[in-house]
Amino acid sequence: MKESELVSKLQDFGLSQVAADVYLAMLKIGPAKASQICKFACTNRVKGYRILDSLKKAGFVSSTFSNPAIFSANSLQESLQNVINMKKSEEERLEKLMIYVAKNYATSEFKIKQTDSPQFSIISGRYNIYMYIEKLIKETKEELYVITPIGDLNIMYYTPIPEAIRDAQRNGIKIKLVTDMIRDEDIGIIDKMEIDDFRIAKLPSKGRIVCSQSETLVSGYTDVSSGMNSDEDSALVTNSDEFVSNMKTLSMQLWKAGKKQYSLKERNSEV
């Protein structure tokens, strides 16, 4: 794996690009003082100390109690396992909190006032967008269009979305994917996601459209270089009948214009 690709994967685990660069530098030089690390990683001391502190909190780095402190990078596997363990602990804490809040505050005073007017909302943050896409897939009753660049799919693969797609397909839901795959090897990511029905087409933009029978999510330019934790990524979500109808019409047009690709299941059945 190229170092640039590893940096991108580390960003999916919550590191900034600079923090990922410093961590990889520490793996190369071994235990060292902060000043040595900053010099090797080509960053100033003030910023370097802040990054080292964030790496310690994230479970990527350990340090001694000596003065000056010696910093050591934890192994790649140990570091990533630390992130997973912390996320699991946080998930368990939030689940307990959710049960408590739902039990103690589920009164009419705090219930959402229902309205028949179309709802428009903005979702900020790539992770939050992916969680909403997962929700749309789970709630779809008939078919769902997913229009997005191949780079976005490469990041989606590391979310619960592929599992939601597989469950939907097993329940007879049609997931229709249109992407702009340009290399033969890109088909591998779609094989991994086990999407049964997909086509290749020239997309009108680098954004994404996810459209069900009753709701649509639309994003503008999708910069995949920032990985999973991009706070700059945002999406419009609406249940407006007119908006949903227009987006579904566009999705159907892209689907019809796209070149059909044979899924892994179809290719295996021909062997």
Structure overview:
This protein is α+β, with helices and mostly antiparallel strands and 271 residues long. The chain folds into 2 domains: 3-77, Winged helix-like DNA-binding domain superfamily/Winged helix DNA-binding domain (Arc Repressor Mutant, subunit A, Orthogonal Bundle); 120-261, Endonuclease, Chain A. Helices cover 51% and strands 17% of the residues. The chain is built from 11 helices and 11 strands. The chain has helices at 3-12, 17-29, 34-41, 45-58, 76-105, 126-139, 150-156, 161-170, 187-193, 241-257, 264-270, and strands at 32-33, 61-63, 70-73, 120-124, 143-147, 174-179, 197-200, 208-211, 216-219, 234-238, 259-261. An 8-stranded mixed beta sheet has the order 4-10-9-8-5-6-7-11, sandwiched between helices. It has a 3-stranded antiparallel beta sheet with strand order 1-3-2. β2 (61-63) and β3 form a beta hairpin. α2 (17-29) crosses α3 and α6 (126-139) runs parallel beside α8 (161-170). The protein is globular, with a radius of gyration of 22 Å. The model has no long low-confidence stretch (mean pLDDT 86).
List keywords for this structure.
2 domains; 11 helices; three-stranded antiparallel β-sheet; eight-stranded mixed β-sheet; Arc Repressor Mutant, subunit A; alpha+beta; Endonuclease, Chain A; 271 residues
Write a brief caption for the model:
It contains 11 helices and 11 strands. It has helices at 3-12, 17-29, 34-41, 45-58, 76-105, 126-139, 150-156, 161-170, 187-193, 241-257, 264-270; strands spanning 32-33, 61-63, 70-73, 120-124, 143-147, 174-179, 197-200, 208-211, 216-219, 234-238, 259-261. A hairpin with a 4-residue loop joins strand 8 and strand 9 (216-219).
